[in-house]
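U., I forgot to send this yesterday:
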Amino acid sequence: MNRSLSAGAARLHRRNSLFDQLLTEANRALDVLGRSARASRPNPAGKEVSDITPQEARHAAGLMRVNHVGEICAQALYRSQAMLCKDPQVTQVLLHAAQEEVDHLAWCDDRLRELDSRPSVFNPLWYAGSFALGLIASRAGVPYNLGFMAETERQVEEHLESHLETLPVADARSRRIVEQMRDDEIEHRRTAEHNGAAGLPPPIKSVMRMMSKVMTTTAYRL
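Result:
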C-alpha cells in the first residue's frame, strides 16, 4: 500500500513538474511576445546618434525586424529543447544561449522603437512553430540537439554578416548591435560543437535554409 502511494506521489510530482515548466514557458512567451523582456547586458549601440535618411531608416528597420524574428525563434527553440533535455550540462548550454538571445531580442526591439517601427506581426506564429520544432528536435538525442543548435547558429551568422554588408553605412547603432549578436552566435556555435554536436544530414540543413528564407522575406516587410 505504501509503495503504491509512493509511486502515485512520484508520478504526480513528475506531472506537476512538467506542468510547472509549461507555465514557466507560457509566461516567458508572454514576456517575449509582449515586448517586456529585458536584457541582462547593456545595449552595445551606445549613445551615439545615427544620422540616416528616412529611406535608410526603413531599410534598417526591415533588417532589425528580421533579426528580432530570429531571436524570437531562437528563444523558443532553445528553451523547448532544454525543457526535455536529459543532460544537465547540455541543458545549461541551451539555457545560457537562450538568455543571450533575450539580450539580442531586447536590443533589436530597442532599435526598432528608435526607428519608429515595430516587430513582425507574425511573431506569435514564429514562436509557436519554433517551440514545437525544439520539442521534436529534443527527441533525437543530445548530439543532434547540439547539432541543431550549431547549424542554427551557423545560418544565423551568415544572415548577420549579410546584414552588416547592407546596413546603411551611417547607421552605427544598428551595426554595433548586429556585430555583437554575430559574435555571440559564433560563440554559441563553438560551444555546441565543443560539447559534441553531431552533423545534421544535408536534407535537414536544406529545409532549415528554406524555412529561414520564408521567415526573413516575410519579416522584412511584415
